[in-house]
Design goal:
The structure is a single chain. The protein folds into 3 domains: 152 residues, 3-Layer(aba) Sandwich (Rossmann fold), CATH 3.40.50; 199 residues, Nitrogenase molybdenum iron protein domain (Rossmann fold); 30 residues, no CATH class. It has 17 helices and 14 strands. The strands form 3 sheets. It has a 6-stranded parallel beta sheet, with helices on both faces. Helix 8 runs parallel beside helix 9. The longest helix is centred in the first third of the chain and has 19 residues. The protein is globular and about 85 Å long.
């Protein structure tokens, strides 16, 4: 399992690594045409298309009455999941909710002496659709995806959160998915997945109401469907393959660093795990640890492919150069595994989430600490942010102009309108202050 070792000293060394990481985008035009066909059929046929696709790909005996998951199944799931696991889920939900509560924005107003009032109303969207991947045929339920996507919507005040997830072969959903939904108070759950589920959330069907925003990760079909629907419905983001960059010095433990790299590499053969270090000796020790730990992983084959194709051990002359490189990469996850991480924090401009010090591995944020784990990938942390409460809110401007305001400024407004050739705009103002 080779993992490339490269040297980075300055900007001239950036191109090879940049091109390597960019190659993971690899869009498939064939997928886009298939997804367009799926969306068109869902738009035209509704539930009938959902049932046909689900029979073909997930559950051969699927029927229309199996689309909606009965409330009784959510209640049963709460009894099936061990109490200790429910307590862990409740604690994780509490932590994530507490963090996102601090993201709420208030409406605001300003008034002028002439009586004019200006303001901004912040209000939630009406309905959110939450996509939850099935996870290896339902055997590895992605419960953290439910929490991370649903909580900010609920904190925003969204009245209805709808959850969709592909059914198992018997038409059911994993009880952990249902129990998590129940703990969050999500009552509208549907057993349907892939691009046809995204189409249903966007267009609405007889069973599934149309949503204003769609959130949640998925495979290339799900991601492509979301991308094609931008403009018709709001989305969280177009997520690419997962990635981690770790800045480390001699104080870091090579076994810990290898474990952290593998925590991303096991996600997907396209995931990228990078170690950026000032120590060649440390890099060599990490390489040995990667080989040993990968061999012992259940998903070792996936991790090995990821490390071989996209992983790198990057040697830099100093930590400032390491930080410069990190800002160029703009990674989804960034760990600062150095003796003194806080002095580096102010130098980081581009990263989805930053994990400080030797005792804060990325999974702490993935599952439990509170910040959202839905993060920008593929360098988009240069201009975008983690999923937040704001993704489920809209801001409406409010203008209440007084007679004095129109009298004092109407001529200026009319002049600007005429400069743009819009005479009716000018007259609509002038008519209010002309004798």
């Amino acid at each position: 399992m080779p993992c490339k070792t490269i040297r980075y000293s300055n900007e001239s060394d950036w191109s090879p690594l940049r091109d390597q990481l960019a190659a993971r985008k690899n869009p498939d035009s064939k997928v886009e045409s298939r997804v367009r066909e799926i969306l068109e059929r869902v738009h035209a046929e509704g539930d009938s298309a959902l049932v046909d696709y689900t029979r073909l790909f997930d559950c051969p005996d699927f029927s229309p009455d199996m689309l909606r998951v009965p409330d009784s199944q959510l209640e049963t799931a709460l009894r099936e999941v061990p109490k200790t696991d429910l307590e862990i889920l409740e604690q994780a939900i509490h932590n994530v909710r507490a963090f996102h509560e601090r993201q709420r924005e208030n409406s605001w107003w300003t008034t002028a002496p002439d009586g004019t009032l200006l303001g901004q109303m912040v209000s939630p969207v009406d309905r959110v659709g939450l996509y939850v991947p099935g996870g290896q045929g339902g055997s590895t339920p992605l419960i953290s995806s439910i929490i991370m996507n649903a909580v900010p919507a609920l904190v925003a005040g969204v009245e209805q959160v709808i959850m969709v997830s592909p059914p198992r072969k018997d038409g059911t959903l994993n009880p952990y998915l249902l129990a998590t939904a129940a703990l969050l108070g999500i009552k509208d759950v549907f057993a349907v997945g892939s691009a046809w589920a995204i189409g249903a959330l966007a267009y609405g069907t007889a069973s599934i109401p149309a949503c204003d925003v769609i959130a949640g990760p998925g495979n290339i079909y799900v991601a492509t469907a979301k991308a094609l629907l931008v403009g018709q419905v709001g989305i969280d983001m177009i997520a690419g393959p997962s990635e981690i960059a770790i800045v480390a010095d001699e104080s870091a433990d090579p076994a810990w660093l290898a474990a952290d790299m593998l925590s991303q590499a096991e996600h997907d053969p396209l995931a990228a795990a990078l170690l950026v270090t000032t120590s060649e000796a440390l890099a060599q020790k990490v390489a040995k640890e990667l080989k040993a730990q990968t061999a012992a992983l259940p998903r070792g084959e996936i991790a090995a492919k990821s490390l071989s194709d996209w992983g790198s051990l990057v040697l830099t002359p100093d930590l400032n150069t390491a930080v410069e490189l990190v800002n160029r990469i703009a990674p989804e996850h960034l760990e600062l595994c150095v003796a003194e991480p806080w002095p580096l924090l102010g130098k980081i401009r581009h990263a989805g989430a930053i994990f400080m010090g030797h005792h804060c591995p990325e999974p702490v944020g993935d599952y439990f600490a509170g910040p959202n784990h839905v993060l920008p990938t593929l360098g988009t942390a240069r201009f975008s942010s983690a999923l937040s409460v704001q993704a489920f809110c809209k801001k409406t401007s409010v203008i209440a102009a007084s007679p004095a305001y129109v009298r004092d400024h109407g001529g200026k407004i009319a002049r600007l309108a005429r400069l743009e050739g819009l005479e009716a705009h000018a007259r609509s103002v002038e008519i209010r202050f002309k004798d």
